[in-house]
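Fresh eyes needed here. Have a critical look at this protein's tokenised backbone.
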Amino acid sequence: MSNDCAKTGNILELIIKNTFRGNGIGSQLLNKIETYFSGIGCKRINIEVFGPNKKALDFYLKNDYTIR
């Protein structure tokens, strides 16, 4: 039995104003966050998304995250 206690980064909100969506800003920010978390030794990232927010879920799935 393994106890996975990897250091975890948490993203509680990543909001891009509607008028700026679709320009890659969200992906750029997510990349910067991932780089930061990696730099401080995080092995995992948890992201909170309101279940009915399909656009956000699709965005994270497109960026190789999984629903848990």
